[in-house]
Amino acid sequence: MKSKVTVVFLILVGIAAAAWAAGDAANGKALFAANKCAVCHKEGSKTGKPIAAIAGGSDARIKGAITNPKGTLGPDGNMPAAKLSDDQLNDIIAYMRSCK
Fold first, then answer.
1. Is residue 35 part of a domain?
2. Closest CA to 40 of 20, 21, 54, 26
3. CATH code for the domain in which residue 49 is found
4. Predicted TM-score of the model (pTM)
5. CB 3.0 to 4.6 Å from 55: which of 20, 32, 33, 96, for a disulfide?
6. 7 within a domain of the structure (yes/no)
7. 39, 51, 84 from 34: Cα distances, Å
8. 68 with 1: CB under 8 angstroms?
9. Is residue 3 part of a domain?
């Protein structure tokens, strides 16, 4: 019985942690605008992929692309690196996922 309670507890903690890390899409939208991401990442852009095309990537890849684009996407890209907190990155990812 004790092990079942422990398993249920761990599952609940995992769900809560995933929800906590999910980010705030409204704040992410504001950050996306403030950092001028939409200049290149809008539908029909020839400069960067639109949000919907990149929102399906893993959180780690999206964070890497934002904070270290040359290291993540390759040296030929023109995307500038952004200095954002992990919470801000989670917010931007939440916004991007809401655009899928």
1. yes
2. 54
3. 1.10.760.10
4. 0.74
5. 96
6. no
7. 11, 16, 12
8. no
9. no
pLDDT > 60? residue 21: no
| Cβ count near 20 (within 10 Å) | 9
53's tokens:
């095309």
Whether 76 has a pLDDT exceeding 80, the answer reads yes
Res. 5 pLDDT band, cuts 50 70 90 = low
- State the total domains in the chain: 1
Amino acid at 47: T
What's the one-letter identity of residue 32?
Answer: F
Place of tokens 């980010």: 23
Instruction: Quick: pLDDT tens for 25-34.
Output: 999 999 999 9
**Residues near 31 by beta carbon (within 8 Å), at least 6 away in sequence:** 84, 88, 91, 92, 95
